[in-house]
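Why do we bother with a discrete structure alphabet at all? Because it lets us treat a fold like text: something you can write down, compare, and reason about line by line. To make this less abstract, here is a complete entry for NADP-dependent malic enzyme 4. Read it the way you would read a sentence in a foreign language you are learning: slowly, and without expecting to understand everything at once.
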Amino acid sequence: MRLNNPASISGSFPDKHRRILPTRVVVAGSSNRDKSNGSLLMATDESTATLKEMRDGYAEVVDPKSGVSGGVQDVYGEDTATEDQPVTPWSVSVASGYSLLRDPHHNKGLAFSEKERNSHYLRGLLPPTVISQELQVKKMLHNIRQYQVPLQKYMAMMDLQERNQKLFYKLLIDNVEELLPIVYTPTVGEACQKYGSIYSRPQGVFISLKDKGKVLEVLRNWPEKNIQVIVVTDGERILGLGDLGCHGMGIPVGKLSLYTALGGIRPSACLPVTIDVGTNNEKLLDDEFYIGLRQKRAIGQEYAELLHEFMTAVKQNYGERILIQFEDFANHNAFDLLEKYGTTHLVFNDDIQGTASVVLAGLISAMKFLGGSLADQRFLFLGAGEAGTGIAELIALEISKQTNMPLEETRKKIWLVDSKAIKPTILIGTSGQGRTFTKEVVEAMASLNEKPIIFSLSNPTSQSECTAEEAYTWSQGRAIFASGSPFDPFEYGDNVFVPGQANNAYIFPGLGLGLIMSGAIRVHDDMLLAAAEALAGQVTQENFDKGLLYPPFKNIRKISAHIAAEVAAKAYELGLATRLPPPKDLVKYAESCMYSPAYRTYR
């Protein structure tokens, strides 16, 4: 027991299942987030400690009049089947007001009420004014808009996340269309390039070749124990920027922020991981600020052994149902890892499967409004890497599902190399090479098709095969266009076109939520098809009339709930779900599981 306030007295424990909490005592559970001090105190009467209370490492007593919206009963989206099991806490900490202000998980800044300030030793540690979370959001948005450089906005957002987690997610959720390009692509690409210079605090776990034989021990150093999603990279192919080594950590951090903001996965259940096996980027090796191993990349058996130790340790530490998302691995490793662990772990590669699902959703939307079917189209790809190959395979699966044609036959409609003879109706770029859809290419597509469908998917913006302006101008305003990175609306003639963004963020948060809430143990291709069809189903005629193949991002949590429901339904149908019995209304259940960034009222 640690006493931060000598005037307080510890509680007693009558039996192994029950405890008595005196006023202003917080119980630290097995997660033991902060070993140095107590982070939160609650005034309460006699109560029973359960996993529900200790879900975030603390027994929080929340005012029932708090009015938290979005998953009040299960605000962190945990497994409700275990919430009411009594447990015995193993340590008691008395809270300190200053520590509470330094704890990003519970800090509310100037939003602490007068009562909370009196109860939690905050009097004098804050200015006297009390403001709402809504005013805090307004203030932070105003401050961020003052920055002219996107990287400065990114750093301001990351700093906020480290100071006040709920405010960070409230700000991001309420302004997702404006801030998504800041916390993720394209700005995250620059952040990764300069990660050594801007790195200040640990945001995830770094596992290097130095940790071989001790990976399980390294994972156990992370303070949160109830992890549900891991995003892992080895940094070899970061967006279209190449090998950034250890600096690739910005990608898992960004992806998991979106898992929470867009999919409602609680922040403490998310773990970013970077596997550092060296880098072949000479510029980084010579950079005095580089934070990774200064050696050439390990390959072959040395690489495989470290990855296998990691995969084994993750399953041992977190269980069968931990979702592992592979991110930005080079082609040769990406396909190998997916094939090797797809039958033994709950794994997902966003570059291969997430991209494929979101592109398929855009194509289904286009067919719905233009008429015709995917089976009638001829697809030409520029770029046959992991993204292009994954998209092509999922399109072939969807056509096979729609027509009952053998998969071998549907693959013949898709070309991964240039051929002047096929007269494509759909052009998809995944080359990672900017401006490769030239004026001649776009004009040729427009001459062959009344409504040429052009997907320019490479990230970041500088690597896009063509811009929205180029696609609309060179096709005389007839192109159906979508890109990987965002482009501003473009006026052509009397029309204003809003370019669609085939952003994986439409898919992976909802997919992850569906897998978690159903307790799925494997990812099946049919789940990816279900996610694509669910996303396409959210596109309205009004959206399409503006040139949009995807619904507005402002509705992303609703979209994610529908995707999660369809993914979960497919998991139950395939016998891959372990959370039984299935909820009667999967959409409502998905919404109830979503993390809420609204402040809670502390007694």
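What the structure line is telling us, in plain words: The radius of gyration is 25 Å. The longest helix spans residues 350-370.
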